[in-house]
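Let us practice reading a record.
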Amino acid sequence: MSPRVERLRDEILILEYRAGDLGALEQLIARWQARIYWYIATTLQDRDAAWDVSQETWLAAIQGLGKRRLVQNFAAWLYGIAHNKAISHLRKKGRLDRHEGTLPEAVEDRPAEADDPVGVAEDAQLVHGCLHRLPLAQREALSLFYLDDLSLAEIARILDVPQGTVQSRLHYGRTKMKDLLLKKGYSRDER
């Protein structure tokens, strides 16, 4: 489904919810719940806390949807709420500075064969493990751009930074990811 169709579908579900259709809200949550949870889990690096922050995000979103203001880009708006809730959680727990650094390695070093389904899963695990080792700002930018397929402008709105800052975070994040993957023995030439 194209991004334009996705946005239109979200807008229709929002209008139906505002007209009293709770099933529309359930559909909206079903469409976005996993993506929002994954974004928060990637940001917090704590799956248990991510469930709590995800619920806080949805409560705030539902309250916001109940207001009569127009939500033109639901994805960017929802990710913005998730970002703010995740950062607030890190600040409350006194963990924001620690998460600006990197985490210890937790992923196996062996690259996978391209035609091996288990190997492909291990590649994904390797990439996600390296992603978790990046500073928070770069991790968020890469996650929103590559995993959530958001535009630079949308990411800038979500993170409340200039678009050039997003581009810089993506550049440095990609460079660090490449270095981490190479240190783990991953090479595109082997694919």
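A brief commentary: The chain has two domains: 3-97, 101-190.
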